[in-house]
Amino acid sequence: MFKKLSLSFLFAVYVQFSFAQLNITLQSHLAFPTKKLSNIGGFKDASNNEYALVGTSTGLSIVDVTNPTSPTIRQNVPGDVSDWREVKTWGNYAYVTTEGGGGLCIIDLSVLPTFPATYKFWEPTVLGDQLNTIHALHIENGFAYLYGSNIGEGGIVIADLTDPWNPTVAGVYDTRYVHDGYVRNDTVYACHIFDGFFSIIDVINKATPVEHAQQETPNKFSHNSWLSESSQYLFTTDEVDNTYLTAYDVSDITNIREVDRIQSQHPGEQAIVHNTHIVKKVGREYAVTSWYKDGVVITDVTRPQNLVNVGYIDENPLSGGGFDGIWGVYPYLPSGNLVCSDINEGLYVYAPTYVPACYLEGNITDNVCGTGVNRVKIEINAIALVDSTNFNGEFKTGTTLPGTYSVSISKPGYVTQVITNVVLTATQVTTLNIQLVASGTIAFAGNIEDNDGNKVAGVPVIISSANNDYSFTSNSNGDFSKCGFVGDNYSVQATKWGYDMLCLTSYTINSTAPTHNFTLAKKYKDDFTFNLGWTTSATASAGFWTRAIPNGTFDGGTPSNPGNDVGNDCSNMAFVTGNTNSTSIGEDDVDNGNVTLTSPIFDVSQYGEAEVYYSRWFYNCCGNGGPFNDSLAVKINNGTETVTLERVTESDLELATWADKSFILKDYITITPTMKLIITAYDATPGHIVEAGFDNFFINDNHPELASIKKENKNNSLIYPNPSAQNFTLQAVEKTLVQIVDVQGRVKEEFTINANEQKTFGSNYAKGIYFVKTISANNINTQKVVKQ
Question: Using CB atoms within 10 A as the burial measure, which of 59, 119, 309, 447 is most buried?
Answer without folding.
Answer: 309
